[in-house]
Design goal:
This protein has 355 residues and is of the alpha+beta class. It has helices at residues 3-8, 42-45, 49-65, 78-92, 96-99, 142-151, 156-184, 192-196, 263-268, 307-313, 323-333, 340-354; strands spanning 32-33, 38-40, 68-72, 111-114, 128-134, 200-207, 219-222, 228-233, 239-243, 246-249, 257-261, 278-280, 288-295, 302-303, 321-322. Belongs to the iron/ascorbate-dependent oxidoreductase family. GA20OX subfamily.
């Protein structure tokens, strides 16, 4: 059966197909709840120095430990978040034949994917995704154009909603780069130029219900190769983080956005801030959806930790690289996991040695 058609029928299958079954060591259950601080951004966003210092301290503690925190009063209109969830619900309810006309082609990051079956044949995730790029361009709104040209004119409103949603996420992401810089003790605008003109990634995830959830995963254990992830979960629990040598849940909170550090920002902090292993599990009775926005640097900009941090640490822990280098590695040579960054560095250095 075609992987895309199979994905559509997953929730109706009485048994998990073999290529969706994960090894037992990946399926250890979570018995604990992650202590991910809830950071109130209200004071920081209006320039309150005391509130900014307090927020930066909380973020520093979280990022030195496991790289996950939540933000509230983040400035993103909750109505916009609800509208984005509604629009993506509508998309995922389309007939599979129509969704599959948008399927990702080899080498492309954009489009519809049923269980990532276009890339892998085993350890398939129990999910479907829609991924598209975001780059601010007022003359030709990229997301609106993508929805209209690839999904259809009847999805123009969805495109307009996600154009606004991505714009709000990018704006928040840029503010978070300032707060992260403050928390690291460097100039608050140090990282801004790296990200201002970057093309970010928006990924909408749908995890169907599963009759044997103890055999499979919605997303396998991995560290995000990008810089900063801004995630909104719906009301169904499913996000697990591997911290303190055990899997821990991060329950959904509708008024909060979950922020986590990716491999690229680990390099930008000279290894101080952790890019933490995480996964998504599936539910026997309910489907789950999430909206993930990945803030990315401009592809040709050098990813390099600030000299101030390197000076304090005494050594530069990662070679200079570009986001396009790491993106190429994860799309063509390597399936993201907990060792993506060290394996990428090894690949990068061996590639340079042979050129």
């Amino acid at each position: 059966m075609d992987a895309g058609v199979l994905q559509c029928a997953l929730e109706d299958l009485p048994h998990v197909p073999t290529n969706f079954i994960w090894p037992k060591e990946y399926l250890v259950d979570s018995q604990h709840q992650l202590e991910a601080p809830v950071v109130d951004l209200a004071g920081f966003l209006i320039g309150d120095d005391k509130a900014t210092h307090s927020a930066a301290k909380l973020i520093s503690q979280a990022c030195l430990n496991h790289g996950f925190f939540q933000v509230i009063n983040h400035g993103v209109d909750p109505r916009l978040i609800r509208q984005a969830h509604h629009q993506i619900d509508t998309f995922f309810k389309l007939p599979i034949q129509r969704k599959f006309t948008l399927h990702k082609t080899p080498g492309s990051m954009w489009g519809y994917s049923g269980a990532h079956a276009h890339r892998f044949s085993s350890n398939l995730p129990w999910k479907e995704t829609l991924s598209f790029p975001y780059h601010h361009n007022s003359l030709d709104p990229l997301v609106t154009h993508y929805f209209k040209s690839t999904i259809g004119q009847d999805f123009q409103q969805a495109g307009e909603t996600f154009e606004k949603y991505c714009g709000a996420m990018k704006q928040l992401g840029m503010k978070l780069t300032e707060l992260l810089a403050i928390s690291l003790g460097v100039d608050r605008l140090h990282y801004r130029e790296l990200f201002e003109e970057g093309c970010s990634i928006m990924r909408c995830n749908n995890y169907p219900s599963c009759k044997q959830p103890n055999l499979t995963l919605g997303t396998g254990p991995h560290c995000d190769p990008t810089s900063i992830t801004i995630l909104h979960q719906d009301h169904v629990e499913g996000l697990h983080v591997f911290a303190d040598n055990k899997w821990q849940t991060l329950p959904p909170r509708l008024d909060a956005l979950v922020i986590n550090i990716g491999d690229t920002f680990t390099a930008l902090s000279n290894g101080r801030y952790k890019s933490c292993l995480h996964r998504a599990v599936v539910n026997k009775y309910k489907e789950r959806k999430s909206l993930a926005f990945f803030l990315c640097p401009k592809e040709d900009k050098l990813v390099r930790a600030p000299d101030d941090i390197v000076g304090m640490d005494g050594t530069r822990k990662y070679p200079d690289f570009t986001w396009s280098d790491l993106l190429l590695f994860t799309q063509k040579h390597y399936r993201a996991d907990q060792a993506t960054l060290p394996n990428f560095v090894e690949w990068l250095q061996s590639s340079k040695a042979t050129n």
